Amino acid sequence: MSVAFRRESDEEHLEPKFELPIPPGPNLVTAAGPALLAARVAALEAQIDAAAEDDREPLRRDLRYWNTRAATAEVVGPPADDTVGIGSRVTFRLNGQTRTVTIVGHDEADADARIAYAAPLARALIGTGAGDLADFQSRADAIEILSVEND
């Protein structure tokens, strides 16, 4: 029979469902990281239990990602001295505006006040201290570090 007369299933036209990509490198987190990861896993497990069977596969994929992240988390304490590192809360001036961020692990970051240690801004800040100037976006001394808090 010719393929022109063959009925194709709807599944043939769907995009393939890939696993969520794991960021490269170690899974460094702050002391609060394991609890945040465990809460995410518990929330997904509850969603899977409440979801209809057809809606469970994307949730299971997310759960596999978060279980992997929870299993590979490496807690990193903040630096002992006043230098910026993972877990540091940094106040700085960039382009005339003052901003405060906390440097955290990939999975702890949010869009505003908590940035991942691999983000370009965090990489520019790590290793600096209060009063230092840091290069950023190909500009020398673009960032002025005002204060560093390590808990």
Automatic annotation (TrEMBL):
GO molecular function annotation: translation elongation factor activity
Ranges of residues in domain Transcription elongation factor GreA/GreB C-terminal: 81-149
SUPFAM superfamilies linked to this entry: FKBP-like (SSF54534)
Keyword Disulfide bond: no
Pfam families listed in its UniProt record: GreA_GreB (PF01272)
Keyword annotations from UniProtKB, A to Z: Elongation factor, Protein biosynthesis
Highest taxon of the lineage: Bacteria
InterPro entries, per database record: GreA/GreB_C_sf, Tscrpt_elong_fac_GreA/B_C, Tscrpt_elong_fac_GreA/B_fam
The protein's name in its UniProt record: GreA/GreB family elongation factor
Organism for this UniProt entry: Sphingomonas aurea
